[in-house]
Amino acid sequence: MERRSWTTWLAASCALFAGACNDILGMDPGAPVPSGAAGDGGTAGAGAQTGNPAGGAGGQTGGTGGESGSTRPSCMGLPETCGAEQTLDCCESVYITGYKFPMGRSAGGPDAFPDGKVWEQPEHEATVSSFFLDRMEVTVGRFRQFLAEYDGTPPAPGAGAHPLIEGSGWLPEWDAEVLPKADLIQQLHCHPLSTWTDQPGDNEDLPMTCAKWYEMFLFCLWDGGRLPTEAEWEYAAAGGLDNRLFPWGGEAADGTRAVMDCAWGGTPGTCDMADIAPVGSAPGGESLHGIRDLAGSMWEYTLDKYSDVWYSGGGSTCVDCANLTMPSTMGRSIRGGAFDTPAAELRSVRRDSIIPTYRGQYLGFRCARSP
Predict the structure, then answer these.
(1) In angstroms, rounded to a whole number, what is the distance separating the alpha carbons of residues 353 and 356?
(2) Burial class, 28, CB count within 10 angstroms (exposed 0-12 / middle 13-18 / buried 19+)
(3) pLDDT tens-digit readout, 294-310
(4) Partner of 220 for a Cys bridge, out of 62, 88, 143, 225, CB 3.0 to 4.6 A?
(5) Strand (E) or helix (H) holding 9
(6) Which residue stretches of the chain have pLDDT < 70?
(7) What is the pLDDT of residue 264?
(8) Exposed/middle/buried for 317, CB within 10 Å: 0-12, 13-18, 19+?
(9) Residue-range definition of the domain harbouring residue 182
(10) Complete DSSP assignment for 77-119
């Protein structure tokens, strides 16, 4: 369901009287429309066409629209039970107006942190075009919908690409990673804390875990989207020009803002299933654009290969960029921290990596979509 505020109508009027409205909206000429104004901050689903009615893994992305997220394949027929409220659409997507922003950790800005990692720097200017990002991490229930249509058929080369990034789609050499359905389901039980269950049950609103990167790519493709780039992910988490230390701002992380440090509901001092919360359970941690669980819950895969020196190399001048070619022995970039991550490691610029074939109880994802 699309949400708009008073700034929507003001910004619409400003389209006619742009110069007179800059001061009212608190905008510089050319700056992005603020959250909640026309074209930004409202939530909207992305209408999708699977392009594969027979149920193959390879779909084609459809255009984004104003429909509810429940029109997408992964939420067809699912109840709106996500979030702490247990009434939110699990497929809701947020439209984020693109702009330039300072990517990486600064030395003295709002995101400065004395004990940060060297690979979070240097801070550099990056630009992303407008995009949609799922408000919630992909749930077990949504992934179950995907598996119901999955037949182990690899997608066409180039499918699932970011439309502005050449070479970002499916590669034929990945076809061997598309498992037969029975083998895939068996491997989703990768750990005692795996959230997957072979039959629907109490885990349907938990974040999906134990999928490998290639399966996350296939899910987003089938659902009308794609994996977000690392730059898009950080732009959403840091609030663009806000350059936030955490997605919610500069305040310290706690249990109202993030599912973290194995302290959600299990036995103190241990990590168990009770520490994995349904998606969106910590609304105090919402980002500038209303996105939940960008800190804690699950580490989230991005499209990019990981490199410690990407920020000072190919990524130092980033306009709709992704690290697709820089040699990497460390796999794909993951962002955001997980349910077992300490508070200080939930910062918006924090980045790490894992090989794309790995299945982990702390690895999840969400999808992006292009307008």
Answers:
(1) 9
(2) exposed
(3) 999 999 999 999 888 77
(4) 225
(5) helix 6-14
(6) 1-70, 106, 118, 121, 315, 327-329
(7) 94
(8) exposed
(9) 49-58+99-371
(10) T----BTTTT-B-TT-EEEE--EEEEES--SSSTT--TT--GG
Task: Find, among 49, 44, 61, 52, the residue nearest to 220 by Cα.
Answer: 61
**Contact (Cβ atoms closer than 8 angstroms) between residue 296 and residue 258:** yes
**Structural domain contains residue 332:** yes
Q: What is the pTM for the complete model shown? A: 0.82
Contact assessment for residue 27 and residue 34, using Cβ atoms and an 8 Å cutoff: yes
Taking the C-alpha atoms of residue 352 and residue 154, their distance in angstroms, rounded to an integer, is: 28
* Half-sphere exposure (Cβ direction) of 245: Cα atoms closer than 13 Å: 18
pLDDT tens-digit profile of 68-115?
Answer: 566 789 989 999 999 999 999 999 999 999 999 888 776 788 777 777
How many domains in the chain?
A: 1
> 317 lies in a domain?
yes
Q: For residue 343, give the CATH number of its domain.
A: 3.90.1580.10
pLDDT for 105 = 75
The DSSP H or E segment spanning 303 is strand 299-305
Residue 370 amino acid letter: S
User: Is residue 370 in some structural domain?
Assistant: yes
